[in-house]
Amino acid sequence: MATPNRSRTRFSLLAAPAGSPLPLPFLYPLFFVAVYLAHWNLLQLPYYWDEAGYYIPAALDFFHTGSLIPTTTLTNAHPPLPSLLLAGWWRLCGGISVGATRTLVCMIAAFALVGVFRLARGLAGPIIAGVVTLLTAIYPVWFAQSTLAHADIFAAAFTLWALSFYLVQPTLVRPAPHRFAWTAVFFSLAALAKETAIVTPAALALWEIVQLFIAGPEELADRPGRPVYRRIHLFWIAALAAPVLPLALWYAYHFHRTGFVFGNPEFLRYNATANLGSARILLSLWHRVVHVTFHMNMYVPVVLTLALLATAKPINLIPRSLRRPAFPAILVIVLGNLVAFSILGGALLTRYLLPVFPLVLLLCVSVWTARMRAWAWLAGLTAATFLTALWVNPPYTFAPEDNLTYRDMVILHERAINLIEKRFPAATVLTAWPATSELTRPELGYAHKSFRVTPLENFTAEEIQKAAADPGSYDTMLIFSSKWTPPPGALNLSRGHEATDMRYFDFHRDVSPEEAAAMLHGDIVWQAQSKGEWVAVLRFPRSVEARLFVPFANK
Hints:
The protein is an alpha/beta fold. The protein has 2 domains: 369 residues, no CATH class; 138 residues, Rossmann fold (3-Layer(aba) Sandwich), CATH 3.40.50. The chain is built from 22 helices and 7 strands. A 5-stranded mixed sheet has the order 4-3-5-7-6, with helices on both faces. A two-stranded antiparallel ribbon has the order 1-2.
């Protein structure tokens, strides 16, 4: 019998696993169209939060000047790959526009979902892969990030593709050489998209080192008397360590150009050195566990899975498709990210965990299919709760970018700034970030011209009192909700830990427009709210001293 010729697919990036009927190149256009149409009413929204504060200004600087180091916003040493991709796409589109930016992010999100499908199909088959991919796509945190030009969706896409090469074929058999190479390439691209993406390959490299020392030579032999398991582990360690090199070269270049390795000192303090207390790390770890098991209705698939596992015999707890080596490796990835992001990052943003959510869903769906014949009902229930969480906010404080609440915030800011432009075109505006950037940078999509701005740190009573001591520096105020909190009288699960959140996580309470007007002796000329987000414009009829403000972000 002739040996099948596999030379055409062996080194193909999009080759399907054996027995799979549908090559991945056919899936990508379908995924992109689905993502694009699902986000249709979000594609023209002005830039939001860290988009406006860093990522878009950095990409614009590269587009206009070719500089990898941002010049119109403070550099925080984020790697430049998102800026390169955005600037290149703008060139192909013939110009800069919000729509072009959001289209590129949809393309990246679709690419990430193909990676999720490839990973899940290789481990658990096409049916489970389809369900996991759909649940990932509609999970509120993922859905919201699928049009936002944050570095996290870029890093997540490359990370998931790297995992599809690392996890699908067991590490204790002889993998094809291209698996090592593509794993190293995709993890390197992930690290160049966002530096914290190095966490996943680092965790897996440590796991390979552990296996190197605990595995016995009898577990695998290339031929009798010739063990090869050590060489395989060493190859994987080398592939997983490879992303350190391009990231180190970037930091060396950044230090050469700026004198700082990890960004400006304030950025480094906020995101790393100020976070090393044991109490803060433990609290952060608790929040991170909540993020991957409870947040935005993730508790539904997790609780269903735990209920099914409670009825299983200990020997059958792990689905056959996810047994060694995939299951322990997935646990290492999840735990590694939870611990790392309990230390790194001043803000507990859930988007940092984007690559983890598909893995949690893969574990859940694999258990359902192994323990219950009517598992499709569990998938349908999970999908319904995820879709609900896109519009219905949870009973605790969260970042608007975790579901479609960010859209309400953007639209309210757009309306407020449009009113200021029409009624007070010469205003000097007292406000806080990110509105400081929205008012001073027309390219962000809010204002048609740059306004003079007097910046506040936030809208706490202390900051308002400081502004009251210098009334000649502004004649208008734009005040808004900086985070979503349950309304007074409603169930608020986060109320009990507000004190620790204020101490460790920069939580604060915004004063209301009425309180600000009373403290600053002004009048509310316009206000609006939408699903818990609110914004107001205050006016102070007096002359002001013009001041220059340079916007920046530190996340």
